[in-house]
């Protein structure tokens, strides 16, 4: 056990900068010693922040003071860098998506076992307030058993240029955002995913999915609909959940939302046809407003929505105090679902899974 664990970062781009900002607050036992990046401009940026700029990856990995390595490069080299770092005796935290394929992650997991190192993944969106609010509200039972969950993130500015547009570097929205949304749902339900259907568009960049829509079915019967979009000028709610006894909606990242739940099923039907705005219909006739209750949802103030919980769970695992909460086995299931989704859009078929 140590008072401080020193972190070396490989790949000091945008996301690594976010790790720097958060860890600089000193809320965890992890602090950054230095970085290596193949781009000299990023090494200069590190120096300006008072960090050590290593002249090579080997120099960083052979620094005996470094306890933990953060792999925060483009996705295609995550596996090889993570394995090399563990060979050099370092614990590793890897940015998401941990690796583009399950095969690569299995090699990383083998290395973690062989070298007896802690290996975890930055699935930081498990503590996003909107997700925590949705999960807690559904688990409270207020809408009854859930049977459909819709999770969407939608922008209209297209995809950022750069490596995200290049397939060989692990680009595309499935690996970029899909990995978070799928991880959230698989973290919420222990049940297996039994089928996946997915369609995608490559509107802006022909090599990669810049938009996708996916349906994944869990063994408990829950149908999860996941959409990541970069060309939606009118957006859906962030979350929309149907339960047997009510409906939940969270509109946006501010967590504005509501639950409308049934307090009287109103299953008495008129003998005669009912005339409504929808024309003559009994099914779609408006219900008695006294038969439902509306509960306003708002931002949960007790949720620590930053990178600290990710690092704390890692330090606890290094110190043998607790198991990782973000386990490689969980990341492996998420990758398998993403690979099934890609297979689905290539074949235009529902893919039966046992994940
Ligand atoms: N967890 C999150 O919420 C989140 C958010 C954004 C990005 N990410 C992930 O973080 C990673 C980096 O994304 P980014 O947005 O910071 O990209 P970026 O392009 O800003 O940074 C990547 C950096 O890695 C460097 N690099 C590439 N290959 C390298 C190598 N072999 N050795 C050393 N340096 C190398 C590049 O020069 C660049 O500076 C990706 O895996 C991405 O998916 C995670």
Architecture blueprint of SSEs:
Layout: E1 5-10, H1 14-23, E2 30-36, H2 40-48, E3 52-53, H3 57-61, E4 68-71, H4 78-87, E5 91-94, H5 102-114, E6 119-121, H6 129-139, E7 146-154, H7 173-188, E8 193-201, E9 211-218, E10 223-229, E11 239-243, E12 246-250, E13 257-262, E14 275-276, E15 279-280, E16 292-297, H8 308-318, H9 328-347, E17 351-352
Parallel strand pairs: 1-2, 1-4, 2-3, 4-5, 5-6, 7-10
Antiparallel strand pairs: 7-11, 8-9, 8-17, 9-10, 11-12, 12-13, 13-16, 14-15
Helix pairs in contact: 4-5, 5-9, 7-9
This protein binds nicotinamide-adenine-dinucleotide (NAD).
Determine the fraction of residues in helical runs and give it as a percent range: 25-40%
CATH topology tier name of the largest domain: Dihydrodipicolinate Reductase, domain 2
* Spatial strand order of the main sheet: 16-13-12-11-7-10-9-8-17
How many domains in all?
2
Structural class: alpha/beta
Bound molecules: nicotinamide-adenine-dinucleotide
Query: Any idea what the CATH superfamily of the largest domain is called?
Result: Dihydrodipicolinate Reductase, domain 2
Low-pLDDT regions: none
- Helix run count: 9
Q: Provide the CATH architecture of the largest domain.
A: 2-Layer Sandwich
- Tally of extended strands? 17
How is this structure best described in words?
- With about 350 residues, the chain is an alpha/beta fold.
- The protein folds into two domains: about 5-120, Rossmann fold (3-Layer(aba) Sandwich); about 125-305 and about 335-350, Dihydrodipicolinate Reductase, domain 2, CATH 3.30.360.10.
- The protein contains nine helices and 17 strands.
- The chain has helices at about 15-25, 40-50, 55-60, 80-85, 100-115, 130-140, 175-190, 310-320, 330-345; strands spanning about 5-10, 30-35, 50-55, 70, 90-95, 120, 145-155, 195-200, 210-220, 225-230, 240-245, 245-250, 255-260, 275, 280, 290-295, 350.
- It has a nine-stranded mixed sheet.
- β5, α5 (about 100-115) and β6 form a beta-alpha-beta unit.
- α4 runs parallel beside α5 (about 100-115) and α7 crosses α9 (about 330-345).
- The longest helix has 20 residues, at about 330-345.
- The two termini are about 35 Å apart.
- About 40% of the residues are buried.
- The structure holds nicotinamide-adenine-dinucleotide.
């Amino acid at each position: 056990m140590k008072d401080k664990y020193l972190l070396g970062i490989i790949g000091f781009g945008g996301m690594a900068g976010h790790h720097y900002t958060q860890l600089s607050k000193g809320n965890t036992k992890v602090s950054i010693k230095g970085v290596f990046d193949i781009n000299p401009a990023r090494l200069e940026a590190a120096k300006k922040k008072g960090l050590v700029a290593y002249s090579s990856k080997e120099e960083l990995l052979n620094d005996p003071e470094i306890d933990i390595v953060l792999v925060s490069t483009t996705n295609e080299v995550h596996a090889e860098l993570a394995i090399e770092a563990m060979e050099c005796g370092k614990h590793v935290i890897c940015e998401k998506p941990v690796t583009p394929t399950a095969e690569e992650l299995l090699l990383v997991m083998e290395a973690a076992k062989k070298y007896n190192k802690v290996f975890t993944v930055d699935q930081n969106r498990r503590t996003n307030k909107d997700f925590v609010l949705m999960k807690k509200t559904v688990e409270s039972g207020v809408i009854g058993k859930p049977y459909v969950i819709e999770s969407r993130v939608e922008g209209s500015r297209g995809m950022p240029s750069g490596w995200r547009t290049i397939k060989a570097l692990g680009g595309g929205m499935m690996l970029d955002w899909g990995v978070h949304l799928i991880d959230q749902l698989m973290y919420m339900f222990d049940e297996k995913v039994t089928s996946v259907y997915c369609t995608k568009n490559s509107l802006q960049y022909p090599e990669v999915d810049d938009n996708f829509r996916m349906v994944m079915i869990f063994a408990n019967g829950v149908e999860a609909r996941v959409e990541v979009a970069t060309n939606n000028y009118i957006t859906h709610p962030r979350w929309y959940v149907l339960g047997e006894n009510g409906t939940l909606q969270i509109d946006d990242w501010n967590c504005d939302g509501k639950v409308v739940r049934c307090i009287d099923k109103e299953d008495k039907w008129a003998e005669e046809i009912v005339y409504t705005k929808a024309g003559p219909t009994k099914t779609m006739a408006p219900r008695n407003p006294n038969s439902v209750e509306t509960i306003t949802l708002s931002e949960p103030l007790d949720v620590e929505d930053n990178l600290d919980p990710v690092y704390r769970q890692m330090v606890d695992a290094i110190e043998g105090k607790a198991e990782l909460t973000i386990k490689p086995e969980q990341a492996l299931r998420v990758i398998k679902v993403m690979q099934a989704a890609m297979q689905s859009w290539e074949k235009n078929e529902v893919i039966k899974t046992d994940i």
